[in-house]
Amino acid sequence: MRPTLNRDTPIEIFEEYYWLKEELQSFCRANGISTSGSKIELSDRICTFLETGEIKKPVRKSKGIRNTNHNEVLSLDTVITDHHRCSQNVRTFFKSVIPGFHFSTYIQNYFKDNAGKTYRGAIEAWYEEDKRKKDPTYEKKIAPQFEYNQFTRDFFADPANKGKKREDAIKAWNEIKKLPGSNKYVGGP
User: What percentage of the chain's residues is helix, strand, coil (to nearest 5)?
Assistant: First the structure.
């Protein structure tokens, strides 16, 4: 049986179970801990609290001087800054160069990880990703905090589940998340 999360929960037990973001936020609210951030950030704060009693403040990213690109004339040679924003002006520019452009997770990460490069490089990266997506073996990477999405992908990839429905995957997920340990799909009985 899955335990209740409270201030007396041993850290080892907390780390063994799956918790919804809402449960983590509720725990944080009840204990004066910031509720902002991702599940990973909330879990980290809760671990610190359960282990030491310390209330860890969220890490605030310095915004510094922002280049908002609101009215800036953009070109292929526009340099990506440390504080790049995917603004409407940026979207309009990329749509004028790439038919069907949208801000995918991949391209947003490209902007975040490639300060100093130009929009020309971002366009090349967009087309490379677009080409990868057309490959029948392509699978979009699922970030670690999206355990349910990874579980369902793996559930349907298992030949033993051929012909099963979404409800079957949800039922299997609801069972595994109650148990201690990993929430990864490991195959049928």
Answer: 50, 0, 50
At residue 153, what is the residue type? R
DSSP state, residue 137: T
Per-residue confidence in pLDDT tens, the chain, 189 aa: 788 999 999 999 999 999 999 999 999 999 999 999 889 899 999 999 999 999 988 877 655 445 555 567 899 999 999 888 888 999 999 999 998 898 888 898 899 999 999 999 999 999 998 898 888 888 888 877 789 999 999 999 999 999 999 999 999 999 998 888 888 998 865
What is the Cα–Cα distance from 72 to 76, expressed in whole angstroms? 13
**How far is Cα of residue 69 from the mean position of the Cα atoms in its chain?**
25
Q: Please, are residues 39 and 53 in contact by the beta-carbon 8 Å criterion?
A: no
DSSP bridge partners of 125: none
Sign of CA dihedral 152, 154, 141, 165: negative
Q: What angle do CA 93, 74, 87 make, to 5 degrees?
A: 60
Contact 82, 115 (CB under 8 A): yes
Q: What are 172's two structure tokens? A: 């299997």
Q: What is the rounded CA–CA span in Å between residue 179 and residue 16?
A: 8
